[in-house]
Amino acid sequence: MKSALCVSVLLAFTLLNCDLFAGDRELPPSTPLKTSDPAVASSAEDGSLPASSQFAIPGPLRSFLRMAGMSQKITPDEVLPLLSRNVFTQGYEGSTHPTEFLILLKRYVVQARELSELAANSGMVLRVSNCDEARPLLRILGYRTRANCGDPATSLQTDDPERAFLAVDSGFPLPDLEQTLQGGKPFEYPYSSSPVPVLFAESDWTMASPKNFKENSRDLLDTILADPSVARLYWAFSRLDPETGKSLQQSIGLAKLLPYGAVLDFYGSGLCISEGHVNVPGGPAAEAAWKDLVGASPASPTTFVPKLVARDKGWLIAYFDALSRVSAAQQAYFTEPHRLRSFYSALRAPDPSAPATRGFYRPAPALLLLVTRLQLDDSGKPIVPGNLEIWKEILEGHNSKLVHRWGKQSTHLTGPDQLVQIMFAVSRAPTESGPLHTYMAISELDSRRSPENRLKPATVRLLAHRFEDYSDQYRIFSEFPELTDESISLFLDVAQGLNSLSVTARGNAFGIFQANVGIWQILARQGQIPNANLNESWQEVIKPFATARSAAQVYDAGQSSLGGLFRFSIGKARGSQDEIIELLAGPRQNSTDGRQMHREVAARIRSILDDQRLVSLDTILTVGDALAEKARGKQAPDYVVVLAGQTREFEMPRPIFTSGERTEWAAGIYNNHHTDVQMHADLPRVLRSTSASRAQIEDARGQLASFLRDTLVGLNYAYYEPPGAQALHNNPLFVRSHDFAGEALEGMKTLWQAPELMGQGSPAGGGAHFVGSLADLPYALAEIEQDFISPDSVQALIWRELTPGLLASSILPRWWNVSPLELHAIALYQRTGEELLTASAKDEALRSKVLAILSDRMLPQRLRRLDQLMSSGRTAAVLSQMMPADTFYLAAEFQQKYPEEPMAWGTAGQELQSLCKEHPDQVNWKRLSHDFGTPHPSLAQNYGLELLNVAPMPPFSGSSSRFLAESWDSPNLYWARLADEGGYAPVMLTHLVPQLTRTMIEKIFATDFEDWPALLRAMHETGQEFREGKFNSPSRISEVRP
Amino acid sequence: MAKKLFPLILLSLVFMPRQTAVEAQESPNIHVVVNMVQLNVAVTDRKGNYITGLRPKDFVILEDGIVEKAATFAEGDEPARNLSDFADNPGPSGPPGSFAARSADGITADNFAALVNGANVFVLFDTSDYMYRGFVFAQDAITEFIRSLGKADKIAFYSYSRDLSRVAALTADRSQVLRAVRSTVAGDQAALYNALLMTLKDAAINTGRKIVVVFSNGPDNSSVVPPEDVAEFAQSAGVSIYMISTQTAKLEPVSTAVFDRMTAATGGKAYFAKNWRDEHRAFASIRDDLAHLYSLSYYPKPNPNGGWRAITVKLVGDNLKKYKVRTRNGYRPQPSRFSGADKANTLSGIVPQSHDAEGITPGHEPGGQR
To answer: Is A403 helix (H, G, I), strand (E, B) or coil?
Structure first.
C-alpha cells in the first residue's frame, strides 16, 4: 500500500504505484490512435494546445508506443507529450544515468530508422518473398533462418539477442515473416513513419536544449530522448491551455522556461491566461491580494508569471495551484487579502531552501488536503473542535521542532484563522500523524455532528493525544456522528487497556474486539441496529472488554459482546452463525430480486468461511457453554464432545518447506504461532475428562478464544470480499495469519492503525497476511486481491493505490434501501447535465451559469477549454470529456441555484424537475449522496457513503495518492445509470457494481499516473459491453418504473 | 521426436467435476462430498523407458488404504472408456512393453505428436524483469514446443509479471498461439504463484488431460499466495505442473526447492536449463511425458476423512512390480461446512448428495475452489 513507485528496469510500462488523472488533463477524443495513420487529428479540434507542425516518428506508431511504454489507445496529439513524460520520469536513475528503458527506446529508434531505410527501397513497405530476400531484414531484426529455410517446419532463431529483443518487444510481426519462410505467401509490412503533432515548431524545442548547442544535429525525438529538461518542459506545456502556453512561449521563451520545467509540470495547470490577464484563485476580487503577494499584477502576465514561477523555489505557485483546485466558497475564504498573505508566509517559512519540486511526486499533500477539506461553519469561519485552548495545548505538547516553534506562537491564538495559519506552517511536514492531520481528522469528525452535539474539549484532547496510535480507528466516529463523547472515550480507553494484556491473550483480544466492532459497524450502516440504539449497542459491544485480563476472560468478553450485537439486531442475546450471516447479507428483502441478492451475498460469505476452514460460531459457543458448565461441575454431553472435534479438524497445507528452510528463508515473515497453538489444543479431551482441573478448563476456554477470533474476523473479511478475490479462497491461513499482536514484527509502534501487508513475494513465508488492526479492512483486502485482476491489454498493469480505492468503493455500497425512483433520478441527473451542456452551446447566458457551477470541479484551463468547445458548438467533444460526476453535479447544483428556472433544455430535465416536485423525499441531495456515494477514508476520514463535490486530485507519494481515487465519484453513478437504462432493480447493483468495476479495471490502459481519461475510457468501454449484453447479468425487474 | 527418451514415470490425479456422495457406514448423519477422481499415471522401467500396453487390471488404487475401483481407463491419446468396455473388448494395446517396443509397433517419433491429442496445455511464460536477458531465447524455445505439439488438442498461452495476461485462450489454432508468444512484452515484478494459481484455475475447468508448463527464471517477489496452496490446488484439480527454469533459479535455493517439490507433487517435473539448448531439450522431455500417460478414474469409497487423503497406485503381478510408478500422494476434499446444501447437519459439516457414477462429466470447477 505504501510502496514507492517502482519503475521497471526494462520496460516500457511499469507504473506500479500508478495514480490516474491529475484532474487537469484534457480528455482526448474518443477515437483511438491508428497505426501509421497519416490523418493525424488536429489538436485544435479538441481544445488542446495548437500543433503548429508535425514530426515523423520512425516506423509504425504501434511499435513505438510499445517501446515507449504508452497506451495504444492514445491519440496522436498525446504521443510526444506522453513520450516526454515517460522519458523524464522513467528514463533516468539519478539525474543523468539512463535506465534500461531509455537505452532500449533509443536502440529501438535506431533499429526503426534502419528498417525505414530498408523499406524505402520498396515504397515504404518491407517485402520478402523467399529466404534469400529475407537476409537483410533478418540481420536488422537480429534473427536468422535455420538450415531448412523454405521448409514448412522451419522457424526463426535468435541471432543477435539485443536486436531480437527490440524486434519482439516492439511487436514486429515475426510469425508472418516465419510463414513466408515456410513457403507461404510473400511477407509485406508497411513501414512508413508516423506523423504526430508538435507543440509550436520543432525548432523551438531543439534550439531550446543547451545540449543541442554542442551537437546541433538532433531532431525533436532525439532531443526529447537526450534532454530530460526539454522533455519535462514539453510535457508541462502540453497541459497548459493554448492561450496560456502561447503567451508564455512568446513572452518568455522556451529556453528561459527550461529551468522551470518541474515547477510548470507540478503546478502549471493552475495557470490560465485569458485575454492578457492571469486568472487567479478567488477571481477578480482577489487580484489585488495576488498582486501584493506576487509583486506583479495579474493583468501583466509577462511579469506576473515569471515571478509566480520563480518565487520561493516553487512554493508560491504551489500555493496558487492548490487554491485554484478548490471550490469558489473555499477560495473566497483563503484569498481574503490578509489570510492570503499570512497563510502563505506560514507555508513558506519552515524551510525556504527546500524546493517545491523535490522528488518524483508533488510534495506536501497535506496542503491540498487542508485547502480542500477545511471545514467552515455557517458563518464562514473554520471549525475549531473543542476550543482554541485545547489546540494551544495540543500544539505546545507536540514534539516536533517545527510544531513546537509554531506552538509557541499559538499562545497568542485568538481566532480560528491563526489556527489555520499554523496548519499551513506544518502542512509541508512529511508525516501523517502531525497536528495538521490531527486537526483535519477531528474537524471532519466534528463537522458531521449537529451544532448542539459538537465534541467536548476533553474528547478532542483525548482524540488528539491518541491520534498517532489510533487515528485510523477514528473513521468509525466520523461515519456515526451519533456516537456520543462517552462512546468515543469508552472505545479509546478500552482499546488502550487491552494493550496491557499478556502477549498470549492480546492477539485474540484485539481480534475479537475489533471484529465485533466491525460487525457493529456493518449492521449500523445497514440500518439493522436502529439509530436510537447506536450508543447503547456500541457500549454493550465494547464494555465487556474493559475487564478482560486473562485468555478465558477474553473469550467471555467476546461472547458477551457478541450477545450485545444480537440483542440489538435480532432482539435476543444468543443467535446462530446462520443468523449473523443473514444479518451481514443485508436487511430482510421482500422482492424476488432482493431475496436473490440477499442469498447471493450470504452464499459468498459462507464460501469464504468454508475456504478458510473456520470453526462454526455455533460450535464455539456450544463448546464454550459446556466448558463453563464443566467448571461448575457438570459433565459435557457426548454430542458437544463430538462438536468440539471440529476444533481439531483443520490441517495445515501440505508443507513444501522444512521448518529449517522456513527459518532460513522466511525469518520474521513466517509466523503461524496462532494456528500452531490451535492445533495443539485438545478441547474434546478436556470435555471428556472427568478429572480436568479448574485451571485446565480455564485454559481450554482461553484456547477457544482463538477460534472465536478467527470466525469473527473471518466474517469481517468475508463481508468485504473484493470481486474476483483469490487469496481469501485459496489461502486457508489468510484469516488465521492476521497478526493483531505484532508477534512477528518488532518495532511496530502501534497495532491499532491500518494493517500492513507482510509476506508478499516471500515464497517460504506462508503467504501474505496482515499485521495490525481491522481498520481500513475494505481497502486492505482490495489491495491484496488487486493483483489477481488480469488486464485486457498486454502492457496495461493494475494501478496500485487507485485500484483498491475503486474496488472498495464498489464493495461498500449495498443498495438494499434504494428505490427505483432514486435510481432513475441518478440517470436523469446525468442526462440533464448533458442537456444543459448541449443547450449551453447556443445560449451564452446559460453557458455562463454552467461554467460557474463547473468551476468548483475543474481547473481554470480545463474550464476554458470547455468554454471554447461549447461556444464553437462542438457539443460531442464536450460530452465525451465529461465525467458522470460532472454532469450529475452540474444538474444538481443548477437545480439548487436556479430552482425557479424551468428545465426546458430537454426531456430528462423536465422529467427530473417533476420527479423532484413529486418525490422530494426520495430524490433530494442528502439521500442520493448517501445511497450512491462512496467511502472517502483518506480524504474525509470516513467510511460512510457520500458524494464529495471536489475536483479530481493530483497524485502524491505514499498513501496520499489515495486522494486520487477517492476524488472520483463517477463509476457508481455511471453503473446506476446503466442499471436504470437496462431496467434493473436497484438492489441488483449489489451484484452489478463490483463486477462492472472489476471489468473496468481490466480495461484500463493508461500511460501515466495522471491519465484519468484512460479511466473514463475504460468505464465507457465497460458500459458499452454491458449495453450489448456481454455480461452475465442478473434478471431485470418486472415492475414498471415511474 | 528428435531426442532420446528420458526415463520418467508420471502419475497425476485429477478431480473430475461431477460430485457424488456416499453415506458413511459409521453414522447415518455423516456425509462426505466426493468427486470422481482421475489419475494420470506414468510407468517406467529402471532405465526410465516408458512402459506401455498396461491394462486396468494391472493397477491397484488405494485411497487412505482403501482399495478403490477404477471407473475409466485410457492410455495415451485414447478416449477414456468405462471399465466394463475392457471386459468385452481388450482393446488394441496388447501386452505391456517399453516405448522402444511400442515404437516397433508403429508408435514412432514421427507420429509422436498424435499421442498428445486430448491434452490441454497451458504455457505460462515469465515476462518479468528476471527474464530480460533470456527473453528471446525463451520465446524461440516456446514457439518450437508449440509447433512440436502438432495435433494436441488445445494450447493456451499466458504470460505473467506482476499480473497475469491471458494472451491466447485455449485454442487448437497454433498460429494464434504463436502470435501470442511473439506479442509478449518484458518487464515488471514477478508474481509467479499468483499467476500459476489463476492458470491452474483456468486449466481446471477443462476435461481431459491438463498440464501447465511454466517457463520462469525463478524468483517471485510479489505473490500473495504461497506455493503450498498452489500445489494443493493443482493436486485437487489434477493438473500436472512442469517448470522450465534457468541456472539462475538453480542458484536460488527457494525457487529450486519449490520447483522441484511442486512439480513432483503434481506429477510433473522441473528442469533447470544451462542454456537455450537445454531449454529445447526440456520442452521435448515434456512432450514425451504427455505421450505416455495412463488415465484412470475412480469414485472414492466411503471415507470419513475430511482432510488430506493419501493416494497410492501400485502395479499388480510379479512381472510388473519391477516398474516404477509415480503419483502425487493425495488430495483434499472440498470444504463445505457452511456453503453446502445441508447446513442443518453441522455435526460433520459434510454435505449429502445423490450418488451418480456415470463416468466423466464436464462442468463445474473441482474441489469447491474458485
So the answer is: helix
Q: Of B257, B335, B340, which is closest to A657 when you measure between CB atoms?
A: B257
Plot region of A631 (φ>0 → left; ψ -120 to 50 → alpha; else → beta): alpha
Which residue from B minimizes the CA distance to A152?
B147
Cα separation values, A718 from A112, A600, A712, A767, A987, Å: 52, 13, 10, 18, 19
Mean pLDDT of all residues belonging to chain A: 89
**How close A726 gets to chain B, by Cα (Å)?**
8
Is B347 a residue whose pLDDT tops 50?
no
Tell me which chain B residues have a C-beta less than 8 angstroms from the C-beta of A761: 189, 191, 220-223
Overall residue count recorded for chain A in this entry: 1042
Which chain A residues are within 8 Å of B304, Cβ to Cβ?
A: none
For the stretch A840-869, pLDDT in tens is: 999 999 999 999 999 988 887 788 889 989
Distance set, CA A831 to CA A164, A731, A873, A882 (Å): 52, 45, 18, 12
What residue in B sits closest to A607 (Cα-Cα)?
B339
| Three-class SS state of A946 | strand
CA B209 to chain centre: 7
Contacts of B232 in chain A (CB under 8 A): 653-654
Q: Which residues does chain B have within 8 Å of residue A655's beta carbon, measured at their own beta carbons? A: 228
Pick A559 or B95 by higher pLDDT: A559
Inter-chain residue contact B261 with A656, CB threshold 8 Å: yes
B25 to chain A, closest Cα gap in Å: 17
Tens of pLDDT, residues A576-585:
999 999 999 9
Q: Please name which of A317, A334, A412 lies closest in space to residue A370, comparing C-alpha atoms.
A: A334
Given this model, what pLDDT does residue A1040 score? 34
ipTM of this complex: 0.90
**A577 interaction partners in chain B (CB closer than 8 Å):** 338
Show the cell assigned to A760.
508478499
Q: Between chains, do A10 and B132 touch, taking CB under 8 Å as contact?
A: yes
Closest Cβ–Cβ partner in A6, A8, A761 for B223 = A761
Domain layout of chain B by residue ranges: 11-76+78-111+294-368, 117-291
Q: For residue B130, give the 3-state DSSP assignment.
A: helix
Q: Is A7 on the interface with B (CB under 8 A)?
A: no
Q: How far B88 CA lies from chain A's nearest CA (Å)?
A: 41
Residue keyed to cell 524461440: B140
* Cut 0.80: pTM above it: yes
Q: Per-residue b/e over A991-1008, b at no fewer than 16 CB within 10 Å?
A: bbbbbbbbbbbbbbbbbb
Per the CB < 8 Å rule, is B226 touching A731? yes
Mean pLDDT, residues B326-338 taken together: 75
Our CA-based measurement puts residue B145 at a distance from the nearest CA of chain A, in whole angstroms, of: 12
Mean pLDDT score, A23-27:
39
How far is the C-alpha of A7 from the C-alpha of B189, rounded, in Å? 10
Query: Which of the residues B176, B185, B258 would you substitute to probe the A interface, choosing the one with the greatest number of A C-beta atoms within 10 Å?
Result: B185
Q: How far apart are CA A293 and CA A437, in angstroms?
A: 27
Residue A622 contacts B, CB cutoff 8 Å: no
Distance from C-alpha of A819 to C-alpha of A812, rounded to nearest angstrom: 18
Tell whether A174 lies on the interface with B, counting CB pairs under 8 A.
yes
How many Å apart are CA A718 and CA A106, to the nearest integer? 49
Angle between helices A228-238 and A76-90 (to 10 degrees): 140
Please report residues of A whose CB lies closer than 8 A to that of B140.
155-158
Write the Ramachandran bin of B345: left for phi over 0, alpha for psi from -120 to 50, otherwise beta. Answer: beta
CATH code, residues B117-291:
3.40.50.410
What contacts B345, CB < 8 A, 6 or more positions away?
Answer: B29, B31, B351, B352
User: Where are the extended beta strands (E) located within A13-123?
Assistant: 51-57, 92-93, 97-98
